[in-house]
Amino acid sequence: MRKFIFAKFSKKRSASASTSHRLPPTPTAWPLRPDGPAPAICDQLQSPLYGKLSAELRLLIYGLALGDPTRLLHICKNTWRRHRRVPVAHYRCTDTDSPFPTWQHTCFDVICNRRRAATPTEDKLLALLLTCRLVYHDALNILYEENIFHFQGAPAVKQLRTSLSSVQWRALRHVHISTEFVPLSAHPAHDINQTPLWPDERLDGWIGYCQCLREIPDLRTLRFEITMRAKDYMWVLKRVLEALQHLQARVFEVELNVDIPDDLLHELGTLRFQTIGKERPENEEVVLRAMTSFLQI
Ligand SMILES: [Zn+2]
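Structure tokens predicted for DUF7730 domain-containing protein (297 residues):
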């Protein structure tokens, strides 16, 4: 997302280079690093947005344009696009009534199909931010604070983290992760994680993904939706929950399709999260396409 914004600003700068009234170049770190110098910014009083409306009303407008408290903003691993790796793609959820695990929403059909170009920006979510420096400065945090970032598998957490500055990452307030732990052996599709439709969840990366979430200082809602299909899942569940015990949020919920045994509960001590037991049906269409894709690898 950040790379795209930089690219847009670079284009805007070069396009306006021929005019005599262009502003000085914007420092590349602005405003994503607080220690960077601020560029010259027009007051934009000729615009009714700044000339007539109060700051409070402007913030309400930005919130309505950039945020959505009801529909998830899906974040998932991206596909190759024009031979250039774009770390993550984002899409606003359109499958809000799905009974299936969230990572099996039909929303991901577009993103994860390697035959179609995926883009993180075709919903024009960033269009308002790109209108001028002043709007960008005033509204950037709203994009991160007022959306529910849903990750298709925890690896997407790391991918988004590496593509954002600390300022942006720490502005996140609502995070939802849905994922599945599949057996790594004794299963006909033991590498189904390699298909673009699967969350690619690996226990060895789990602690690192949780560490990324610990960097966010003021998480208001943190929801995990975890399906355990791993053979002998109990030791996997133990490692997963132990890592979650280091996280905190005002509302912290973990949905599981299995019960936590009493001895593990005793070992974990007081839970920092509320557990929700729920068995969601599998989206057979997604599973079938993943299996087909897996067999073609
Ligand atoms: Zn969706």
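Residues 8-20, 111-117, 185-190 have pLDDT under 50 and may be disordered.
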